[in-house]
Write a structure and sequence with these properties.
heterotrimer, A mainly alpha (342), B alpha/beta (429), C mainly alpha (301), A: 342 residues, mainly alpha, two-stranded antiparallel sheet, 13 helices, 2 strands, disordered N terminus, disordered C terminus, B: 429 residues, alpha/beta, Rossmann fold, eight-stranded mixed beta sheet, five-stranded parallel beta sheet, 15 helices, globular
Amino acid sequence: MSDISQHSPSRGLVKSGSLPSMRALLTLLAVLLLAAVPFIAPSMQLLINLALAKGLAVLGVTILLRAGQVSFGHALFFGISAYAGAFLTASLPGADIVLVLIAGVLGAALSGLLVGLFVVRYRGIFFGMLNLAFSMIFWSILEKFYHITGGADGIRLTRPSVLGMALERDSFEAVIFYLSVVLMVGLGWFTLRWFASPVGQIFQTIKTNETRLEYLGLSPKRALLSGYLLSAMLCGVGGSLMAMTQGVVTPEYVWWVRSAEMVFIAVLGGAGSVRGAFIGALIYEIVRVYASAFAGDIWQMLLGGFLLVIILFAPGGIMGIADSLIGKGGKSRPTTTKEDAQ
Amino acid sequence: MKKLLLTTAICVAMPLAAMAADKPEALKIGMTTFLTGPASVFGVPARDAMDIFVKNLNAEGGINGVPVEVTYIDEGAGAEALTSEYRRVAETEGAEVMLASISSGNCQTLAPLAEDLKVPNLMWDCGTQRIFEEGSYDYVFRPQGNATSEMLAAVAYLLKTHPDFKTIAVVNQDYAWGRDSWDIFRTALEVMKPDVKVVGEFFPKFGAPDFSTEISRLQALRPDVVLSTSWGGDLDTFVQQAFQRGLMNNSTFVLPLAESSLERLGSSLPAGHVVGARGDHYFLHPERRDDADFQSFMKQYKEATGDIPVYSVFHASQAFAALKTAYEKAIADNGVDWPDEDQLLAALKGLEFQGLGRSLHMREDNQGVESQLMGTSAQAGEYPFATLENIMIFDGEGLLPPVGETSIDWIKGLDASFVDGLTVKTYEN
Amino acid sequence: MDLTIFLLALFDGISYAALVFIVALGLTLIFGVMRILNVAHGSLYAIGAYATVSLTGFVLSLGLAPVLSFPLMLISAVLVGVLLGGPIEWLLLRRIYDKPEVLQLLVTFAVFMILEDVQRLVWGTQPYFQASALQALGNVTLFGVTYTVYQLILLSVVAMGLLFGLRFFLRHTVIGKLILATTEDREAAQSIGIDADRVFLFTFIVGAVLAGLGGALASPTTSILPGMGADMIVLSFAVVATAGLGQIEGAAVAALLIGLGRSFAIYVWPEVAVLVPYLIMVLVLLVRPQGLFGTSVARKI
């Protein structure tokens, strides 16, 4: 299995020269800009909110890419979390937003553990295909048990309350927007810390040299499982936010094309990059909405062409391009794109 | 936020100005429709028809001198793109009225959204009866019938034309419409003809390319009646395969959406099977085919697309008629150049309007009352595909539960006398 | 379950399996040789079907005999392979053989997205149906149930023919042996003078022809409409993964397993029929991680 992550495990940790501070500064600027969106571009708020929710799920996929594994079924956890939230608000109308989020993430974690226990034995294409199979089974179940799940029409997730207050759509959307921004920053930071932790280090070594881990007496399966669990929970957070923003949950949340889309975005942003997951999601969502609005008949073709151009001419993704731009401005260092040639 | 400020500004200004909006340069409307995906068999004809309606109206000078502009939104691009686009068109582009949507799932997403955005929304094609039975809306209207009236018309027609059948099997698409429509149909059969036995229930997945195994089973089961509420490619495949293997000689097929497949099925839909049209929609509508507006549209549509129009075209015509009539009524009632939102909503309440079929009206719960046309297929030779004979047009009023009752509960309280109580007109062809 | 129903389910299962196998065969061949899981395979399948319908419609409109639709299927399949498969390999895939697996997969996914829109632009959104080939062969009645000769006999015969034909081709012809050698070790093959680029191009074209042929053969039995490729690709993935990637005989067995599982489910418990392919795949992979016939590859150190 060749790796697809563009970032060597230690990259994020070695802080040298002006580059990291430049990165931190740019990140800070980007977050501030996002936080200002409701004031400077209110018509973009919903779109960006959906992109952030998707970005959190893409972050989950990105984590696995660091271990060289690709899942074509992570929409499973996205969907399970969304449905958990919908069932909760159906049985407990006006449940609190935090409760909905926790229920969703718990659902995703539980299913992540169950599926993870099986799939951590596999690598490469089989890892991807097994994930696909599990997500398709869940998808079929959602369609089949329509008396409970609402079938293809899905079920409504009535608007949760916030700290006991029932909000109108405008205020609720503001709450969920800033919640998404906070979760993006918090979970993004946590993920970077996790990569630096001992488990995270072992996890990333699965990509480069799993056998050596075994010689050292470390369990790659256990490390992979913990990474898998984290990635499932991140997808769960994304799914829950998406469902609360949309107000409805459908089996489309779990459909294989959505899983593929997550991998697509991860590669677009820069495979293995935490920031790239969000930047990729933002760009993807904007391109997709405007392409379908202004070129209704060929939006898929435009997206496909966009993906081809990125892979053929900038395999480091958007972060790869950004890195090389920053790299040219600051210290010169090898561009990330060359590293993956094995 | 912006909306709030705007509302405040209007409230402050209100005592000073008369209750009228300024005449806009154009009446902008947004319409969600499937331009991609399997349901584009309905979405694309509806868009083509809409273009014709708009062109004709604007050629006549629009509504009170205001031309109409439509922005189309693709329902096939996925739920996120749909809701973002819907909001963009309603808020940023300033569409005054939205027409959404084809998919019932999308209607359930967009109806509450329209209510929150305070934009009048006409649900122009989705069938689910749940919307107005599970919630009440001020901004959402349905200028057409719903699944309940469509299925009850099919049951009534079947009982009137085939009173003696004993067994039935169902082959529906495995999604909400397929399940809901069968729930209504079965519940109605149970109270109106309790001796009928259901011998097989099949729900092949949506978009299934092959029904061979289901057809083998049906041949072994030999039911008197085979019901399928499928549509589009699924229905075409099922009927073709059933026809090919002789199943249609042994069983009577009841196909409540087959009007939309007549032309494509060609000679594969033999005579003697029950065909419905989700309303009184038929390119040879017995009460309308001699009218000048009907004929000139049929001609224009044929020139533009080369096809005969299917029911989604009729639904689009009804939504467009409701829109136009409501604006004209609001302008006349209030003696203004252009109505504001409240005047428009007031006009939509209980509105009477006529598209390409019979005239319709809105009930107090904003549900439209639409007549239902059912017929039996015949290969008359005039067209290279099946047309209808023994056509019955049911009045819509009797086919809907009273306001405030849910369909299934209401149907459970009906009995065999229901069918005789319906108002119906019969035509030979 | 009595014997009649058992036999009926068997017939249905076999004819379904035959079609799925033909499509999966191309997918597994490409993977076996080139190590690329081709998502665009589904689009090639759909375009094969569309091309057949258009060509047949054209020929029939000239007043020619419906029997001609059989050679037209083959012509459509070859056209798909040469006109689409060739350029895809030559212009795109050739540039990414040294790239990570997931990028290769995403390239084919991008091609899939582009081809989906191409189909819609060329053939529109209304479903097509062209059953003259099916009608030309007539029906056969078994145990009171009518089957079409086309589905029950012709599809099975073609599937068997392709299975044994491909086996023979790979093992007993020079080109076949070149393909096998390249599959075994690309660098070694090149060092003894095999033009690996041409072998890959040829293999991809053959795989694409098989996808197109699957679509062509399916076209008389089903509606041709947008989105048909997406459904087929997931199903053939399940077949190929169950069999073990690159296993040709395995794909036949897996297709039979899935086809029979599905048809028996429709007789016994119709509600689970749609789950059957995935359940079989998960169960098989849980017990045999490399698939039914796959061989485990030593992980590189």
